[in-house]
Amino acid sequence: MSAVGTVAVLAQIVVVVAGAPLLTGLMRQVRARMEGRAGAGVGQPWRDLRKLLRKQPITPVGTGPAFRLAPLLLVATTLVVAALVPLASTATPVRDSADLLVVVTLLALGTVILALAGLDTGTAFGGMGASREMTVVALVEPTILLSVVALSIPAGSTNLPTIVAHGVHDPARLASPASLLAGVALAVVTLAETGRLPVDNPSTHLELTMIHEAMILEYAGPDLALIELGAQMRLTVLLGLLTSLFVPWGIATGTAAAALPLALALFAGKVALLGAGLAAAEVFWAKMRLFKVPELLTGSFLLALLAVGASFFLPGN
Amino acid sequence: MSTGTYTQLLDLACGVFLLAAVLVLWRRELTAFVRLFAVQGVALAAIAALSGIHEHRFELLAVAVGILVLRAGVLPYLMRRVLATSGETRETEPLVNVAASLLTAAALTLLAYAAARPLVELAPSPATRALPVGLAVVLIGFFTLVTRRRALAQAVGFLLLDNGITAVAFLATSGVPPIVELGVSFDVLLAVLVLQILTTRIHATFGGTDIDDLRELHD
Question: Nearest-CA residue of chain A relative to B15?
């Protein structure tokens, strides 16, 4: 078990790191084509990263360790999450540590670190972005925790591989009201966490609207490359988590080595499909006013709460 | 149909039923209210049809078809006509804002679950276990009725209330006699027709359907 499991974990990390910029490129390309533009190509985010990594590292005057450590910590927490989440296989050596609460906490840690870095610059934009991000996170976290509770009740555990394996073996469970409601709530929360439309616009630098971009405005060179890569990996991991939880077919649950390449290919295909769908939907969405965002997030909180209620009171068989 | 499939489908129908009621509080567009009400009518018809098939009482299928025609067809059609004549599209200022409404809906749902516990324990079955959903929709409908200002939003609130009561009847007794359901349906139809006339009159008098404008009594 351990050999195949270890290979699975390493493969997950490699696929996430290599695939995250490609996913972003694919989403931008889909968006460009739907808006009638030619687009820069799927490989453009990788070319951007290469360009940024070759530049000289610069830190603004007066910034402290929080600013310098944030890119590394952001990428590190996301790498750990990429290793823990059962994207390709549930039978990995780290399966006992892969608790859903741990994954959520690690992702939240990345967000907090970035907010601290934004505050550390001492500029108006950094502070504004950090304050907005914390407002969103404060509303997002309860929703995530409630969805986690709703998903863990049928499986009887908050262990992520157990929940996913349960879904693979009992697909009817995935169509239950609790699972559907939790799915919608988690999808809304994923949009908010990754700074996509309609909560945040990833492609703007307009001071009135930006959240994520405001925090990272002072970064340049290799640090910016790491931040960009970290944000892209977070999007990939979160979309992967959604597919693992709600369309888990094809994920290897045993120790057979043959299932692993198929599982990885299916994972890449499912995430690419989801990302392309999201990008296509974003063409038709407008960014929400900042004061309307709590309304959306309260709605998703309510859905998560109903999911918990439904998993208790509409328990199926 | 096997018991497992029946339970799954019933749970799904109840989930859609509750979700439609909650989304009414989330949305502001009056057309969305009407569409959600139609979706809820379909879910209610599905609940009726499922309990009919499960209990082998095929007159319930006729009741289900009646519910489908009335609540997903005729009533939304009537409301759309009111909407077209009034020219209003949004519930602009509900008395309780949307975020607070959603949290209240959450609290009401929990209240419904707590209140229905003793009833469910009397005879636990998949249908009675879904009883809180019906009660929650009754409470949410009442809340909509109290806090929304536009006449059409209030009509939808009233109809949610009625949908909830019908759902409770189906889930608790596994189907009311067709004659009772027929009576209730005509009652609802009549109420909506009266509300339609009333809305048109309010609109003709005040140029809007904000209920708050009705402050004075005249003969």
Answer: A177
Q: Do B105 and A302 touch (CB under 8 A)?
A: yes
The vertex-B147 CA angle with B143 and B152, nearest 5°, equals 95
Chain-chain contact of B130 with A314 (C-beta, under 8 angstroms): yes
Q: How many domains does chain B have?
A: 1
Any domain includes B66: yes
SS3 state at B210? strand
- C-alpha span between A197 and A278 (Å, rounded): 9
Q: State yes or no: ipTM above 0.90.
A: no
Interface test with A, best of B108, B133, B135 (most A CBs within 10 A): B133
The length of chain A in residues reads 317
B198: domain range? 3-213
What is the SS3 assignment for B162?
A: helix
Q: Does B17 fall in a domain?
A: yes
Q: For each of chain B's 219 residues, which pLDDT tens digit applies?
A: 677 788 888 888 888 898 888 888 888 888 888 899 999 999 999 988 888 888 888 888 888 888 899 888 888 888 888 888 777 777 667 788 888 888 898 899 889 988 888 888 888 887 788 888 899 999 999 999 888 877 788 888 888 998 999 888 888 886 677 788 788 888 888 888 888 888 778 777 777 777 776 776 665
In this structure, is residue B219 part of a structural domain?
A: no
A&B contacts, CB < 8 Å = 74
Q: What is the pTM for the complete model shown?
A: 0.84
Decide: helix, strand or coil at residue B90: strand
**Does A177 sit within 8 Å of B14, measured CB to CB?**
yes
Q: Cα(A302)–Cα(A294) distance, rounded to whole angstroms?
A: 12
Using an 8 Å CB-CB cutoff, list chain A residues near B109: 305-306, 309
Q: In this complex, which of B4, B130, B132 lies closest to A317 when CB atoms are compared?
A: B4
Query: In angstroms, rounded to a whole number, what is the distance separating the alpha carbons of residues A139 and A136?
Result: 5
Q: Are B22 and A306 in contact (CB < 8 Å)? A: yes
The answer to whether A299 contacts B102, with C-beta atoms less than 8 Å apart, is: yes
Residue B218 lies in a domain: no
A178 contacts in B (CB within 8 Å)? 15
Name the residue type at position B140: I
Which of B3, B15, B98 minimises the CB distance to A314? B15
Which one-letter DSSP state was computed for residue A287? P
